[in-house]
Design brief:
By secondary structure, the protein is mostly helical. It has one domain. Helix content is 68%, strand content 0%. It contains 8 helices and no strands. The protein has helices at 11-15, 20-33, 36-42, 49-58, 60-87, 97-104, 107-122, 134-151. α4 (49-58) packs across α5 (60-87) and α5 (60-87) packs across α7 (107-122). The longest helix is centred in the middle third of the chain and has 28 residues, at 60-87.
Length: 156
């Protein structure tokens, strides 16, 4: 007999459990937008945020999938933020679903996500430097965009 308030076969309790399908959705979304909350929401696991971080700590395969997804989405989000800085809103329409999704991310959130995940993706942050301006900044941005483009399979 099922416990009071729960259906036989899991019901509400099963809704909060990780399944292979939920995990697939979670990592797909995480690889697209670099946002754990959005990935949990897409997988229907938003109420499991504490559990997802605990699982990341104790499950090496889950952690590897997480790191890979963050690495992919970080590169795409970084490119998106650099393009916004360089071109503003004067850009061609997105060519892929991933590009469209990245353009939906507000700039402030995108920059926060990059700061949040930077040490995970790039290691320890470099010491503070004097901010670049003018041509030096533009040259550095173009160099970085070419590097990211090559890393994503473009010409550079």
């Amino acid at each position: 007999m099922a416990a009071k308030g729960k259906k036989a076969g899991g019901g509400a309790a099963a809704a909060g459990r990780w399944t292979a399908e939920k995990e697939k959705i979670f990592f797909h979304e995480l690889a697209m937008v670099c946002n754990v909350t959005a990935a949990l929401r897409a997988a229907g696991m938003l109420r499991q945020s504490r559990e997802v971080y605990n699982r990341r700590k104790r499950d090496p395969e889950f952690r590897n999938n997480w790191d890979e997804a963050i690495g992919e989405s970080y590169a795409m989000l970084e490119l998106e933020m650099l393009e916004r800085g360089r071109l503003g809103e004067d850009r061609s329409p997105p060519k892929t679903k991933a590009e469209a999704r990245l353009r939906e991310i507000p700039t402030a959130l995108g920059l926060s996500l990059l700061r949040l995940h930077r040490s995970q993706v790039k290691g320890k942050a470099p010491s503070a430097q004097r901010p670049m301006r003018g041509e030096k900044l533009r040259d550095a941005l173009e160099k970085r965009l070419a590097e990211i483009s090559r890393r994503l399979g473009g010409v550079g």
